[in-house]
Each structure stands twice: as structure tokens, then as C-alpha cells.
Write a structure and sequence with these properties.
This protein is an alpha+beta fold. 24% of the residues lie in helices and 27% in strands. The strands form seven sheets. Strands 1, 2, 8, 9, 10, 11, 17 and 18 form an eight-stranded mixed sheet that branches. It has an eight-stranded mixed sheet with strand order 5-6-4-13-14-15-12-16. Strands 29-30-31-28-22-32 form a six-stranded mixed sheet. Strand 29 and strand 30 form a beta hairpin. It is globular, with a radius of gyration of 27 Å. The C terminus is likely disordered. The structure holds flavin-adenine dinucleotide. Flavin-adenine dinucleotide binds next to helix 1, strand 3, strand 12, strand 16 and helix 8.
């Protein structure tokens, strides 16, 4: 038996597929002094219950790449059966979803094809062709045996020097007084370590809590069954794996029969505030009633299944996060602590790539892939509510297969966070969407009762949305008269202290050291010049700044700033202040005249310049006003105490009535900002894009001294950027159903994929952004793949409408 060492460079906690993969990759990168600790045996968590199917097909480019790498790794280890996979479209709507998926997959270079129903039946003769509309064929997919795979990775890791200790539970994580990893504790003693990686599956939140860290996942049950072979209908072992999202099932051939799993529409969460430590390799009691609809679905596609008896029904939870994305990366505030958990059923597909990326993060501080969406600290205080988080986790599980349309909103766990102006929004007929727990108006249906949006697109499918004309009216109010919007959900972070300027100036591309009252639009950059956030920063005092970001990004940005803090900056307090202030935005050519009717302060062009902020008085109430714009029109954001938010809203609405003021929702922000060329973080701007490529070179001040990514940007500038974010006019004036991700072709080859898309109601054109080779500048002709058809598109100037006001630093990102 391996002796507990007294020290190791890295300790990996958890002996499932994730932990063994991380340990293997660390050792392969030269960190051979790595110890893996497992409280029971290897494969004692979700890993031992997996059905073992792996597909590369996934909407996220990073996850698709993880999976492609995982398969290559398993193939190298000789543990992967490459039998291909078919993903059936059992409805016309699903076929269209698959056309979008295939276009997205092509755009990132994945070998997939959409095949006809007849071709699918040729590849898999056992299926019925009833209600079969086609299938996605992924020849490189396949399956593995979970035990064999985990033990093979463990063996390869041991071979490179990793020590693995089973029956060794980690009971504590020791930190130094300065918040760095010092050691892990076990009943058999302690191991000193520089780095600890938590790969503890459903136990991860409680292990992270040993170091004071907060991460979020909920154990959600997953079931699969082994079904007997039926005489005369035995399945060949080399049959492709299958997925049938409309029937909610997946499976593979085994012993002539089938292993069949699926995603129930009424999922079950358990142990939502803590998993028993003594739970190990056993499955939990299955629920035959919940599985019954899946069996029925399976029998529709494979008629022999109605005669096949169940050999065994397996039920076990996996760690589902609220957004079904894993938790990967360092933990802010605890130097040396990393998470590799919350796999959300991405286990075997994700694990290989996760091991590689985690190793890059641990050994080099940065990963080759964009892990932004997986930051383990992306959830905030609202997610400390276990019941709320369980609702989110169950809903994402429900939609793992069940078709979710791009415009659909979450339905479960609502309402969770409401603005002080919520009832005013209700009175105006708001249709609410949800973001980071906030209820936010998507658009208004004046004269009708307010409602919460949900799976609304299920009713209108892949057609023009019914709210198209309402959005157009809201859009025109901002563009032609004046519009008003509740933006309370903005993420707000305050930085206070002598170190604030040094920290912000180091992480931002733009110059932050400007007079008090200045607002700076900037990207926060990583060391490669990649865009880590897109924010405005207002100087409230010599050492005090307010950073404003999208509602969904605030916890991500907050944690990242904490990771970037250096002792040499000097002391700085960084705290979230989102709920301290409501925000009302008002823009449009008439915005100044409305404001002038309510204030004695000078809000003229000279008296209140663009990108300036200061306290003013509106109808006797103190308001902090910022002259910025994301819609590209004259206007302000008003930051107000929640107690007076309704007063301000009502006064502005009353004063604006004469000029036709109209409340707008978040959908109209999208069409407004795209006409003016404004970018959106997460879609147009990511860690993989730099500001020069994004057309945001005007926000980068290479002359301000050193900052994150400066050297990389200087080099990129000298070499000349090779790609550039462009605005495309897709099709003609008629609405085109584009959502983002679609492949872009030039002269028959794929040259990019769509990022943001919207219909521009002023220019009456379908707008989309895409990074394209620099040679494809304004005037170039390209094509966009829309549901399998090539639609012509023209590259336009960045802003299809002239921006107001016409000053150089006139861009602004605000919405999320
Ligand atoms: C029924 C079912 C079917 C599935 N089918 C598939 C599939 O077909 N394809 C696929 O890709 N994925 C599948 N998955 C998902 C996949 O199995 C999981 O995502 C994956 O196994 C998670 O691996 P992990 O290593 O992160 O966690 P786990 O396998 O849960 O491992 C965590 C380990 O940490 C250990 N541990 C916890 N706390 C401590 C501590 N304090 N000290 C020491 N050790 C500790 C646990 O004992 C456990 O062994 C399925 C999941 C289920 C439940």
C-alpha cells in the first residue's frame, strides 16, 4: 500500500474520470510530484455509473474541442470504440435545430454531416423510419467502458510518477494566514502542497467549503437501463451510438441488446445542501415511473424495445451546475486552489480536454481554450440559496435533450430578484425574461397583462417572432424620440483604496487615470491581450471607482479582479454593489429636452459632456448621472437609491409624455446597439479575441505604460491583425432567422461564424457580426448558412448608422 507522503507539489482530490485525467496531464507536463487522493476506490462517484457514450457534437466551441481532444486521448490509450453516432431528428423543428448545429460544427471544423432518414436507416437498420426527418452523422464518435477508461488513465498517470491513495478522505484544507494553500488533511495525516485540485464530482461544493470557497452544483439523478437482446433483432456490437432528442433518449448496443439512457422532463435533485461522505460506488434507488416515458420514446424509434426486458435500471446523480457548464479554474482568494468539477454529465466527453486545460491553468496560468464560461466563481450570492440553485439545475437538465429555442427564457425558480421598478414594469405590460436571477423586461405589450416569458418560441418555432413589430416600435422610440429602460440589473463593482487605480490601470486596455467624474469604456485584458471583460469605469473619487458590467458577468468580473490583485498595488477593497443602486437609462434625440424640464443643472452639450458623470438633481431628488450610450443616441444612465427609483421613473415618464417617451426592453437594446456597431461581451468579445481584431483599437492606450496583454498587442499590431470583427448585412429587407453560430462562407470555403445577430429596424436589414479574414472588408460578398441554405450577405462598415455623438471614444457596452 502506498504510504501517505508528507508533501507533494500538487494534490488532486477525487479518483473519478476528472481527477485521474487532471493527475495524468499534470504529470505529463512535468508535475510528477502529484498525489491523487480518493476517499473510497477509484471510480466511486458518478464515473462508475456512466453509460460511456462520447460525442463531439455540442453547441459550445470549447466543449466541442474538449470532446475532440478527449476522444483522441482515449484512442491513444486504446480504450475507445470509434463506431460513429447518429443524432436523429424526430420532428421538423428538431431537423432545423440540427441544421443550425451542423452549421455551427462546420464553422469550427468538426467532421459532421446531416444525412437523410433513409441514410440513417442504412447506417442503423434496427430503427423505425416513422417520424424520422434526418440525422446528424458524426463518424468520429463512439463509446468506452468507464472503468477501463478511468483505470487506463490512472495507470498512465502512475507510470509518470503520480501517487494514488485510495480509502483516503480529505477532511480539511489548510491555508496560510495570507490565503494560500498549505496542506490537505486526511485521517492518516497531512500532505503539504502548493496546489490542490478539487475533482470531487457531487461532493465538490463541500470540499471547496473546507477552504472557504463557494462553488455551485446540485446532484441531479440520471438513469439508464440495460435492455435484453430480442431474438431475431439482436444489435451488432459495432452499431453506431444514437441520440434521439425528441424521444429524450440516447444509447448504444451491448450484448445484442441496448444500453439506453435519457433525460426526463421531471428530473429529481437530491442532497441539495450536502452529499453524505459515506456514499460511494453504489447506485441510488431507481425510479421506474420516471423512466417509463423514455422507454416509450425508445420503442418508437426501436420497435423491438417494446419486447425487451430490463436487465438493470441504474440511477445515480451527477453534479449539475445552474447553466450545465462545468466549474474549471482557480478559486479567487485562495492561492493554489483549483476546481475541476460540476461536470454536468459532460464527464467522459469533457474529462480529457478538462485535464489538459486544467494543467495549462495550473502550470502556466492560462489555457489555450476559452474557459470563460466555466469560471468556477461565476455564480453569486443569489446562488447561495440551495433550493433556487436546484431549480436551475433541474431545468437545465430537463432541456439537455428537449428542444430549447434560442429566444426561450428560463422558467423555474422565478421570480428570484426584482428591481424596485418591477411593479412599474408590470403596470406597463412587461414581458419578463430572466438574467442572473433578475426579472427584466424583454419587451412591453402595452394594454395587456404583464407576464413572464418562458418557452414562448415553442409556439412560433423557427419563424419571425410575434413581438417583432413591438420591438420595432420600442426601437424607433429610442432612435427618433426618446426611450426609457430599467437597467437595475447592471452588475456594479466598487473599488476603493489607494491600490484601486494601479489595479485597474494594469488590467484595462484604456487609460483609467483621468479626472474624477470621467467615465472610461474599456476592455479588461488577459496577458495574451484577450478580452476578459467589457466594462465602463467611472472615477468617483481619487481612489474610488465604479465598474459597471453586464448582469450575468458581475460575479465573474469580481472574482477575476480579485485574482488579478497584487500586493504592490496597495490596499483596495473590491465589493459588489449591484443591489445598492437602481439604474434608469434614457436615450434619444429628445433626451436632453426631457431632462432639462426636470433639472436646474446644466445638462447642455458643454455643461455635461459625453463620457462624464456627476451628481445632478431631478425634480428635487439626488441622482448620479452618466452620459454614456449603448444605443448610440444622446442620453444618460441615472444611478439612484432604490427608495427614490420610482420617483425618478415617474417624473421622467411624465416629462417625456409630450415627446412620445416609450419604455423599452432588452430586446430593443440589441437592435439599437448593432446598428451602431457596439459589441456584446461573451458573443462578440471573448478571451480568444483581442481589441484590435474586435475593432476596439481606439480603447487601447499602448502609450500609457505597461498593462496586461500590452506586449501581445504590440506584437499583434506589428505583425498586422489577420482577422477583424465585421458587420454583415444578411439577405435583403425581409427578416432572416439567424441566431448566431452560423457558418460564413466566401468563395465556397468557411471563413467564420456569426456572433451577435439582430434585425436593424432603422436600416431595415438583418445585421450580424462575424470575425472574418482582414481581406474581407466593407463591400465584400459572403454567404451565411441558414438552415442548410446559403443566404447572400455583404460586409458593411462597423456601424451601419452614424454614431452620435461624434467623438472618438463613443463606444459603450452596458447590457448583458
Ligand atoms: C447514470 C449516469 C450515466 C452517465 N453516462 C454518461 C455517458 O454516457 N457519457 C459521459 O460522458 N458521461 C456520462 N455521465 C456523466 C459522467 O459519469 C460524470 O460527469 C463523470 O463521471 C464525473 O466524473 P468526476 O470525476 O468529475 O466525478 P466523480 O466520478 O463523482 O468522482 C468524484 C470522486 O471524488 C471522490 N471524493 C469526494 N470527496 C472526496 C474527499 N473529501 N476526499 C477524497 N475523495 C473524495 C469521490 O469518492 C469520487 O470518487 C453519466 C452519469 C451518470 C450519473
Amino acid at each position: 500500500m502506498t504510504q501517505l507522503p508528507s508533501r507533494a507539489r500538487a494534490v488532486v482530490i477525487g479518483g473519478g474520470i476528472t481527477g485521474t485525467s487532471v493527475a495524468f496531464h499534470l504529470a505529463q507536463a512535468g508535475w510528477r510530484d502529484t498525489v491523487l487522493l480518493e476517499k473510497a476506490d477509484l471510480t466511486s462517484g458518478s464515473t462508475c455509473h456512466a453509460a460511456g457514450l462520447v460525442t463531439q457534437f455540442n453547441p459550445s466551441p470549447t466543449m466541442m474541442r474538449f470532446r475532440r481532444y478527449s476522444i483522441e486521448l482515449y484512442q491513444r490509450l486504446g480504450i475507445f470504440e470509434t463506431v460513429g453516432s447518429l443524432r436523429f431528428a424526430s420532428s421538423r423543428e428538431q431537423l432545423m435545430e440540427q441544421q443550425r448545429g451542423v452549421s455551427r460544427a462546420h464553422a469550427i471544423g468538426l467532421d459532421v454531416d446531416l444525412v437523410s432518414a433513409a441514410e440513417a436507416a442504412r447506417l442503423m437498420p434496427a430503427i423505425s423510419m416513422d417520424s424520422l426527418f434526418g440525422a446528424v452523422w458524426v463518424p468520429g464518435d463512439g463509446a468506452l467502458d468507464p472503468h477501463t477508461a478511468t483505470f487506463a488513465l490512472a495507470k498512465a498517470a502512475r507510470h509518470l510518477g503520480v501517487k494514488m491513495l485510495t480509502d483516503t478522505q480529505v477532511t480539511g484544507i489548510e491555508l496560510s494566514a495570507r490565503g494560500a494553500i498549505q496542506a490537505v488533511q486526511t485521517p492518516a495525516g497531512r500532505i503539504e502542497a502548493e496546489v490542490v485540485v478539487i475533482a470531487c464530482g457531487i461532493w465538490a461544493p463541500q470540499v471547496a467549503a473546507m477552504a472557504g470557497a463557494f462553488v455551485v452544483s446540485t446532484p441531479v439523478d440520471h438513469q439508464h437501463a440495460a435492455l435484453q437482446a430480442v431474438e431475431g433483432a439482436e444489435l451488432p456490437q459495432n452499431m453506431p451510438c444514437f441520440r434521439d432528442p425528441d424521444n429524450l433518449i440516447y444509447g448504444k448496443a451491448e450484448a445484442g441488446g441496448v444500453v439506453l439512457g435519457g433525460y426526463e422532463l421531471n428530473p429529481n435533485a437530491r442532497w441539495i445542501d450536502g452529499v453524505p461522505w459515506d456514499h460511494a460506488g453504489t447506485s441510488v434507488t431507481p425510479d421506474q415511473d420516471r423512466f417509463e416515458p423514455l422507454l416509450k420514446g425508445a420503442a418508437r424509434r426501436f420497435p423491438f424495445i417494446s419486447e425487451a426486458g430490463i436487465v438493470k435500471l441504474v440511477c445515480h446523480p451527477d453534479a449539475m451546475t445552474p447553466d450545465a457548464n462545468p466549474l474549471l479554474g482557480p478559486v479567487p482568494g485562495v492561492r493554489g486552489l483549483f476546481m475541476a468539477a460540476g461536470l454536468s454529465l459532460n464527464g467522459f466527453g469533457g474529462a480529457g480536454g478538462i485535464g489538459k486545460s486544467m494543467t495549462e491553468l495550473v502550470t502556466a496560468g492560462e489555457s489555450e481554450l476559452d474557459l470563460y464560461a466555466y469560471r468556477p466563481w461565476r455564480f453569486g450570492p443569489v446562488h447561495r440559496d440551495h433550493r433556487y440553485v436546484a431549480e436551475l439545475a433541474k431545468e437545465t437538465y430537463r432541456y439537455y435533450y428537449f428542444l430549447r429555442y434560442p429566444y426561450d427564457a428560463d422558467e423555474w425558480g422565478r421570480p428570484r430578484r426584482t428591481s424596485t421598478l418591477h411593479h412599474r414594469m408590470q403596470d406597463l405590460g412587461a414581458v419578463f425574461g430572466a438574467k442572473h436571477g433578475w426579472e427584466r423586461p424583454e419587451h412591453f405589450e402595452a394594454g395587456r397583462p404583464w407576464r413572464r416569458a418562458g418557452a414562448d418560441q415553442r409556439r412560433f418555432g423557427w419563424t419571425r417572432p410575434p413581438w417583432f413589430d413591438l420591438q420595432a416600435e420600442e426601437h424607433r422610440a429610442f432612435r427618433e424620440r426618446v426611450g426609457i429602460i430599467d437597467m437595475t440589473s447592471f452588475g456594479k463593482i466598487e473599488l476603493d483604496g489607494p491600490g484601486a487605480l494601479a489595479l485597474l490601470d494594469r488590467v484595462a486596455g484604456n487609460a483609467i487615470d483621468r479626472p474624477v467624474g470621467s467615465v472610461v469604456y474599456t476592455q479588461l485584458l488577459d496577458h495574451r491581450g484577450g478580452i476578459a471583460a467589457d466594462v465602463t469605469i467611472t472615477r468617483l473619487g481619487p481612489d474610488r471607482f465604479r465598474l459597471v458590467t453586464g448582469a450575468g458577468y458581475v460575479n465573474s468580473d469580481l472574482g477575476w479582479l480579485r485574482l488579478e490583485q497584487r500586493e504592490e498595488d496597495g490596499p483596495v477593497e473590491i465589493r459588489e454593489t449591484t443591489e445598492d443602486l437602481c439604474v434608469v437609462g434614457m436615450w434619444g434625440p429628445q433626451a436632453r429636452s426631457v431632462l432639462e424640464g426636470l433639472t436646474d443643472d446644466d445638462v447642455s452639450e458643454e455643461g455635461f459632456a459625453f463620457m462624464q458623470a456627476r451628481a445632478i438633481d431631478i425634480a428635487g431628488f439626488g441622482v448620479f448621472a452618466q452620459r454614456v450610450t449603448y444605443v448610440g443616441e444622446l442620453g444618460w444612465e441615472f444611478y439612484v437609491e432604490p427608495t427614490v427609483a420610482v420617483q425618478i421613473w415617474d417624473r421622467l415618464m411624465a416629462a417625456g409624455r409630450a415627446v412620445g417617451i416609450r419604455p423599452g426592453g432588452y430586446r430593443s437594446l440589441d437592435s439599437l446597439r448593432m446598428e451602431k456597431g457596439y459589441r456584446y461581451y461573451g458573443t462578440d468579445l471573448t478571451l480568444m479575441d483581442n481589441p484590435l481584431e474586435a475593432g476596439l483599437g481606439f480603447c487601447v492606450r499602448l502609450d500609457k505604460g505597461n498593462f496586461n496583454g500590452r506586449d501581445a498587442l504590440v506584437a499583434a499590431k506589428a505583425a498586422g491583425v489577420t482577422r477583424r470583427l465585421r458587420t454583415l448585412l444578411v439577405g435583403e429587407h425581409e427578416y432572416v432567422t439567424i441566431y448566431g453560430g452560423e457558418a460564413v462562407y466566401a468563395e465556397g470555403s468557411i471563413v467564420g461564424r456569426l456572433r451577435s445577430c439582430s434585425y436593424g429596424f432603422t436600416v431595415r436589414r438583418n445585421l450580424a457580426y462575424s470575425y472574418l479574414p482582414v481581406g474581407l472588408g466593407p463591400g465584400a460578398r459572403v454567404e451565411v448558412e441558414v438552415f442548410g441554405q446559403r443566404v447572400p450577405a455583404e460586409v458593411s462598415t462597423d456601424a451601419v448608422l452614424k454614431r452620435e455623438p461624434l467623438v472618438p471614444h463613443d463606444a459603450r457596452h452596458v447590457a448583458s
